[in-house]
Amino acid sequence: MTFDQDLRITAMTLADLDTVVAAEATLHASPWTRGQFADSLAAGHDVLLAYDSSNALVGYGVVMMAVGEADLLNISVLPAFQRQGVGAAFLQHLMARARMRQVTRMLLEVRATNRAALALYTRQGFTEIGRRHGYYPAHEQREDAIVMAREL
User: Fold this and answer.
1) Catalytic (active site) residue 121
2) Of the listed 51, 69, 109, 128, which one is catalytic?
3) How far is it, in rounded angstroms, from Cα 20 to Cα 81?
4) Closest residue by Cα to residue 105 from 151, 48, 49, 47
5) Is residue 2 part of a domain?
6) Which of 24, 60, 121, 143 is an active site residue?
7) Is the Cβ–Cβ distance between 136 and 142 less than 8 Å?
8) What CATH number should be reported for the domain holding residue 31?
9) pLDDT digits (tens, 9 = 90+) for 16-70
């Protein structure tokens, strides 16, 4: 199945928070909290859900728009849908939404050890523009964030 045509993207609402927070807890060692998602909704960020053709939640994303730039704060794909092109299709959708708002560059941060995400972002044209040392909490020490950008 290819997801470029099959993804249905909708805006997240407060009613979706329990589902998203539960998914987030299974996906990330340092998951976003309910408050972080609620704050993003309240701030007017693009907070979106992605569903497949059977109406199963496949992922979610949060993009903060500013004049000329977008910051990809969170993009997550549920395990059953990983490595099937969902992340790429969803990221392309998020970039297209940003372009429609005259955004010319997208930024993101990713754990230095997240090889799958780094490969996805590189395939989508993102390049490393810096590092934030000790940015992410890790088991016994902190982990670097790789800062990446792409012109839109």
Assistant:
1) yes
2) 109
3) 15
4) 151
5) no
6) 121
7) yes
8) 3.40.630.30
9) 999 999 999 999 888 999 999 999 999 999 999 999 989 999 999 999 999 899 9
